[in-house]
TrEMBL record:
Source organism, top-level taxon: Bacteria
Organism: Amycolatopsis keratiniphila
Keywords attached to this entry: Phosphopantetheine, Phosphoprotein, Transferase
InterPro entries named among the record's database cross-references: Ketoacyl_synth_AS, Ketoacyl_synth_C, Ketoacyl_synth_N, PKS_Beta-ketoAc_synthase_dom, PKS_NRPS_Biosynth_Enz, Thiolase-like
Name the record gives this protein: Polyketide synthase
Length: 431
């Protein structure tokens, strides 16, 4: 397979629990901060009447913990070509994406965008705002265009800045944001657009999904994502949004851009029927997509020193992912230099459709700074995985990049619809 020109990340907008920008997110992970809390913002549905510590109890939630954002401040409708009437029912997820897009464009120093072939690819999976609103408002085109239609997650960004490139909202569950990035990279490489915005968003606005995850035993009773831990017991839901500005490397260099990191290659694939259930990941699926990403990037697996894992702390899912990372990457690493594996979900919870974007931003900043941030809850690695034999290791403390060569990291995501995405991120060229 022919390797493609790298894609440069030239702008980042990020809003995650405990962090209102990329630098704050970097400080959070390097500072080993736990941003999960049992105190959601006042505007959220009150889940306390549903609390019951009994596992898998129908109609109840086993934990009240989560990672939350205050999404109610700082949005001026007119700044984004949103009318007051539209703003009355606008999905808060779309407000958050618009704000992140503005931050990313500013970070990329892009001020003249109107009429340009700039692509927009956004990931959104849930529509809890519309779930709450439906039945309590008139269902007209305003309601459809502001709340019901997830396509507007990308459409509003293109409209706000008069962008004329491709525009699409994608839903691949927890792989939504990374799939959006993968599709944006493809669009850039084919020349369909010269600049692309790609990202994802998720806000926990209702309790229905939480109740369902709790009844299925997927929600963490301990209220933390303990990825790869002996006592891992599921995930906690959280808010988040991230948007990247992307260009082909040659274009970014010609424009004199500051480059945060490079996307060396990416791949997506479905597991098909290689798992026992449609929502379960499979070893074959992970191996297939990691191998394909390495081929696209023309990167030998032994060069990958760190993988930012999907890592949502479902014990069986963690074991599968860790085995795959070990088999595809770890066993090829030099003796005594295992592939390090961590997850930002240990810091901020699981932002679902934006979870992969959070991990990608962390990985991009890690290769840029040649630093591997600690992954929380790494004190007791699961005994169900042969870490040494697989050539992998947890990251219990923040350390310098373990290799002397140019830093390369993998970003792994899996969505319950069966979609895997793997992205390889490289250190930016000397600037």
């Amino acid at each position: 397979m022919t390797a493609y020109e790298p894609i440069a990340i030239v702008g980042i907008g990020a809003r995650f629990p405990g962090a209102s920008g990329a630098q704050e997110l970097w400080d959070l992970v390097c500072g080993e901060v736990d941003a999960v809390t049992a105190e959601p913002p006042a505007d959220r549905c009150d889940a306390r009447p549903l609390y019951d510590p009994t596992p898998r109890k129908a109609g109840r939630v086993v934990s009240l913990d989560g990672g939350f954002l205050d999404h109610t401040t700082g949005f001026v409708p007119g700044d984004y070509a949103v009318t007051e009437r539209e703003n009355a029912t606008l999905d808060p997820q779309h407000r958050l994406l618009l704000q992140c897009a503005r931050d990313a464009l500013a970070d990329a120093a892009l001020t003249e965008t109107a009429g340009q072939d700039i692509g927009v690819f956004m990931g959104q999976s849930t529509g809890e705002h519309w779930d709450r609103l439906h039945g309590n408002t008139t269902t007209d085109m305003y309601a459809i265009a502001t709340a019901a239609a997830r396509s507007m997650a990308s459409g509003r960004i293109s409209y706000a800045w008069d962008l004329r490139g491709p525009c699409a909202t994608v839903d691949a569950a927890c792989s939504s944001g990374t799939l959006a990035v993968h599709l944006a990279c493809q669009s850039l490489r084919t020349g369909e657009c010269d600049i692309a915005l790609a990202g994802g968003v998720s806000l926990v606005l209702d309790t229905h999904h939480t109740v369902g995850y709790s009844a299925a035993g997927m929600l963490s009773p301990s209220g933390r994502c303990r990825f790869g831990h002996e006592d891992a017991d599921g995930f906690v839901r959280s808010d988040g949004a991230g948007v990247l500005v992307l260009k082909r490397l040659s274009r970014a260099q010609a424009d004199g851009d500051t480059i945060h990191a490079l996307i060396l290659g990416s791949a997506q694939a479905s597991k098909g029927r290689t798992a026992k259930a449609i929502i379960a990941p499979s070893l074959e699926g992970y191996l297939h997509v990691i191998t394909r990403a390495c081929a696209v990037a023309d990167v030998s697996p032994d060069r990958i020193a760190y993988v930012e894992a999907h890592g949502n702390a479902a014990p069986a899912g963690d074991r599968t992912e860790l085995h795959a990372i070990g088999a595809a990457i770890g066993v090829h690493r030099p003796t005594g230099r295992p592939c390090l594996v961590g997850s930002i979900k240990t810091n901020i919870g699981h932002p679902e459709a934006a979870g992969g974007i959070a991990g990608l931003i962390k990985a991009a900043l890690a290769v840029r700074n040649r630093t591997v941030p600690a992954s929380l809850h790494s004190d007791q690695p699961t005994s169900q995985v042969d870490w040494t034999g697989l050539g992998i290791a947890p990251v219990p403390r923040t350390i310098d990049w373990p290799d002397s060569e140019s830093a390369i990291a993998g970003v792994s995501t899996y969505g319950l619809s069966g979609t895997f995405v793997h992205i390889l991120v490289g250190q930016p060229p000397h600037q």
